[in-house]
TrEMBL record:
<dbReference type="InterPro" id="IPR051179">
    <property type="entry name" value="WD_repeat_multifunction"/>
</dbReference>
<dbReference type="InterPro" id="IPR036322">
    <property type="entry name" value="WD40_repeat_dom_sf"/>
</dbReference>
<protein>
    <recommendedName>
        <fullName>Angio-associated migratory cell protein</fullName>
    </recommendedName>
</protein>
<keyword id="KW-0677">Repeat</keyword>
<feature type="repeat" description="WD">
    <location>
        <begin position="25"/>
        <end position="66"/>
    </location>
</feature>
<dbReference type="Pfam" id="PF00400">
    <property type="entry name" value="WD40"/>
</dbReference>
<dbReference type="InterPro" id="IPR015943">
    <property type="entry name" value="WD40/YVTN_repeat-like_dom_sf"/>
</dbReference>
<feature type="repeat" description="WD">
    <location>
        <begin position="1"/>
        <end position="24"/>
    </location>
</feature>
<keyword id="KW-0853">WD repeat</keyword>
<dbReference type="InterPro" id="IPR019775">
    <property type="entry name" value="WD40_repeat_CS"/>
</dbReference>
<feature type="repeat" description="WD">
    <location>
        <begin position="195"/>
        <end position="236"/>
    </location>
</feature>
<feature type="repeat" description="WD">
    <location>
        <begin position="237"/>
        <end position="274"/>
    </location>
</feature>
<dbReference type="InterPro" id="IPR001680">
    <property type="entry name" value="WD40_rpt"/>
</dbReference>
<dbReference type="InterPro" id="IPR020472">
    <property type="entry name" value="WD40_PAC1"/>
</dbReference>
<keyword id="KW-0963">Cytoplasm</keyword>
<feature type="repeat" description="WD">
    <location>
        <begin position="154"/>
        <end position="195"/>
    </location>
</feature>
<feature type="repeat" description="WD">
    <location>
        <begin position="67"/>
        <end position="108"/>
    </location>
</feature>
């Protein structure tokens, strides 16, 4: 199944095989900022501009829970990989950690030493223990999900953080910013391994499976492939006439899909970067 969210506050669930609309989910009073699937089920989670987060059973088309507490648009969020917890970030400069079953808000992370401006993105470690959050305040903070405490900070960018990605095969993270830089971080020592310069703001990134390579999307319309070991750009894909909004790697890891403000999506072959 495929889930799509719209600025009208509606989630649509599609059957990919038959290309038919399976059901429509509503509830939020504002546009949908993001949509995520539960890692082991048919639960759909969505964050809205109206400061709420909603969860549905996509199989049954049924509303399950609404999480309220944020004071502004919920800009990012996800289930933890073990499916037991929800993390959401908001333009109100807080991270909230929720119990998906009860709907209880377990922790609110905010104030010093956390972000001073709205959150823009988050990534959760594969063991479900840490959340990395990026903000308009140019910083990245690492939060222990179990305790709700800020355990570290990554400070090197000079403009809004737009994307964060965690490597699957090493203790590294990648952050992209409107300062035109991609930074590869060594999380064990909280230091930058390499800085990769772009021609414009970096809006999105994706690690290519478990390889050492990752892709970035940029406001200059280009998609670039980077070697995280050397920090070198080894391939540039052109074609978009406006900034790249999002990147996704196919399940077989042979293709990279980019979506752009020019209204198109493009598919690039990346099988050699595995």
């Amino acid at each position: 199944m495929l889930a799509s969210g719209s600025l009208d506050g509606i989630i649509q669930i599609w059957d990919i095989a038959s290309e038919s609309l399976k059901c429509t989910l509503d509830g939020p009073g504002g546009g949908i900022e993001w949509v995520r699937w539960h890692p082991r089920g048919h639960l759909v989670l969505a964050g809205s501009e109206d400061s709420t987060v909603w969860m549905w059973n996509a199989d049954k088309g049924a509303y399950l829970n609404m999480f309220s507490g944020h004071g502004s648009s919920v800009t990012c969020g996800d289930f933890t990989p073990d499916g037991k917890t929800i993390c959401t970030g908001s333009d109100d400069a807080t991270l909230r950690i929720w119990n998906p079953r009860s709907g209880d808000n377990i922790y609110v992370v905010g104030g010093h030493p956390y972000h001073t401006e709205g959150l823009t993105c988050l990534a959760i470690s594969s063991d479900s223990s840490l959340a990395l959050t990026g903000s308009k305040d140019c910083s990245v903070h690492i939060v222990n999900i179990t305790s709700g405490r800020v355990v570290n900070s990554l400070v090197s960018h000079s403009d809004s953080i737009e994307c964060i990605g965690l490597a699957k095969s090493s203790p590294w993270a990648a952050t992209g910013s409107m300062d035109q830089k991609l930074i590869i971080w060594d999380l064990q020592h909280s230091i930058p391994r390499s800085t990769c310069d772009h021609e414009d703001g970096v809006t999105c990134l994706a690690w290519l499976g478990e390889s050492r390579f990752l892709a970035t999307g940029c406001m200059d319309g280009k998609v670039r492939i980077w070697d995280s070991l050397s920090g070198e750009c080894i391939r540039t894909f052109s074609g978009h006439t406006a900034g790249v909004q999002g990147l996704s790697v196919s399940a077989n890891r042979d293709f990279l899909v980019s979506a752009s403000y020019d209204g198109t999506a493009r598919v690039f072959e990346i099988a050699e970067y595995q």
